[in-house]
């Protein structure tokens, strides 16, 4: 088995930063009234700016595959070109279409060469699982290099017109035309962007990072769905897919909007996260003392103190001085968040040889968690 190193890293955040006052203008106002939920969500998540792949008039500037193509081209130069890539592994929770796969569409935009591709579906963990596929492929010698990416383009899923049919339907029923909080919750948290890394079996580049190990855990066997799109959650917890609804109902129920069961989220995301973190620590025989930089992907600063407290309660407290976050500046970029966070740390000038980095990515879709442990070479 070969050692595997992150030898290059890049990020692509489209257009200019969007502040809290501008976001509703870009995404659109639903039913002609400013959102009341927006203030509540923003107060809790503490996000100040985020990025949208739409312009100030709401016109799309990039689709998801184009965001990924852009970040991969930023990863490359004359020394390592897109034609040198042997494996392309991409993860996202917001593909542009059901078929073809996301990685296939990215490959189409790159127009580089015949190569292996891998598409990972899911939510935030999809970016890490794309990384793990590349990591294992390079480690086993299947390929000499791999480019792994995480990306999201959720802004178009959150635009007002996605919800207009539902609002009109509620009016017809003489019901209050206000969206349920679980549909508005994510609208004020999510951001667009992409991140990518190059994996190679030698420690090249200015700040190569050796991947020591990666771990993943799922609690879907005991937890019902929490975050979802393309279906509707029934009172008994069952997720009914869009394909089992008549086409005329799709818009009336905003079936293709992302939704979050906030009750399930608050009750379980931190407890399961720390439980899985303990499993990763025990399996790899490390403790918080063996971590110099802790990069947790959190969707909201509302969970920051709670995560710290839960780690303390379970006996694996992570000192605050080891935490590295950038949520306030870039928003929740889902599968790309951990790439964007790591890119900022690598380019911060803080890292020195021997530093150890722990990546911690939760996914609330049905409660999955992925981890990576890196050493600066």
From TrEMBL:
What GO MF annotations does this protein's record show?
acyltransferase activity
**Domain Beta-ketoacyl-[acyl-carrier-protein] synthase III C-terminal span(s) in chain numbering:** 282-359
Q: Which residues belong to any copy of the Beta-ketoacyl synthase-like N-terminal domain?
A: 119-202
Q: Name one Pfam family in it.
A: ketoacyl-synt
Q: Tell me which UniProt keywords the record has, alphabetically.
A: Acyltransferase, Transferase
**Top-rank lineage group of the source organism:** Bacteria
Sections of the chain in a coiled coil: none
Signal sequence interval, chain numbering: none
Annotated InterPro entries: ACP_syn_III_C (IPR013747), Ketoacyl_synth_N (IPR014030), Thiolase-like (IPR016039)
Example of a GO biological process term: secondary metabolite biosynthetic process
What the entry lists under NCBIfam families is as follows: PRK06816.1
What name does the UniProt record give this protein? 3-oxoacyl-[acyl-carrier-protein] synthase-3
The organism of origin for this protein: Kriegella aquimaris
Per the UniProt record, the lineage of the source organism begins with: Bacteria, Pseudomonadati, Bacteroidota, Flavobacteriia, Flavobacteriales
């Amino acid at each position: 088995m070969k050692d595997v190193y992150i030898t290059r890293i890049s990020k692509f955040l489209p257009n200019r930063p969007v502040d809290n006052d501008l976001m509703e203008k870009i995404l659109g106002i639903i039913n002609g009234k400013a959102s009341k939920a927006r203030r509540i969500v923003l107060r809790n998540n503490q996000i100040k700016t985020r990025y949208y792949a739409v312009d100030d008039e709401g016109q799309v500037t990039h689709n998801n595959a184009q965001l990924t193509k852009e970040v991969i081209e930023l990863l490359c130069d004359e020394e390592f070109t897109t034609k040198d890539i042997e494996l392309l592994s991409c993860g996202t929770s917001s593909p542009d279409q059901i078929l073809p796969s996301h990685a296939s569409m990215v490959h189409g935009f790159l127009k580089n060469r015949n190569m292996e591709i891998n598409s990972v579906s899911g939510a935030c963990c999809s970016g890490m699982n794309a990384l793990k596929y590349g990591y294992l492929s390079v480690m086993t010698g299947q390929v000499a290099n791999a480019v792994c990416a995480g990306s999201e383009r959720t802004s178009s899923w959150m635009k007002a017109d996605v919800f207009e049919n539902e609002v009109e339907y509620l009016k017809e029923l003489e019901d209050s035309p206000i969206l349920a909080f679980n549909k508005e919750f994510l609208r004020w948290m999510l951001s667009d962007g992409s991140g990518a890394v190059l994996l190679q079996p030698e420690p090249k580049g200015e700040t190569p990072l050796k991947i020591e190990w990666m771990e993943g855990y799922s609690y879907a066997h005991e937890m019902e769905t929490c975050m979802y799109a393309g279906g509707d959650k029934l009172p008994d917890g069952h997720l009914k897919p869009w394909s089992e609804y008549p086409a005329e109902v799709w818009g009336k129920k905003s079936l293709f909007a992302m939704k979050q069961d906030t009750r399930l989220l608050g009750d379980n995301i931190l407890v399961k996260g720390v439980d899985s973190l303990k499993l990763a620590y025990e399996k790899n025989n490390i403790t918080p003392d063996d971590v110099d930089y802790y990069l947790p992907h959190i969707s909201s600063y509302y969970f920051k103190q709670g995560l710290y407290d839960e780690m303390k309660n379970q006996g694996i407290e992570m000192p605050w001085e080891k935490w590295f976050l950038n949520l306030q500046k870039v928003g929740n970029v889902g599968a790309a968040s951990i790439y964007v966070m790591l890119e900022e740390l690598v380019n911060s000038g803080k890292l020195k040889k021997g530093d150890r980095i722990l990546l911690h990515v939760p996914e609330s879709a049905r409660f999955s968690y992925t981890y990576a442990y890196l050493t600066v070479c």
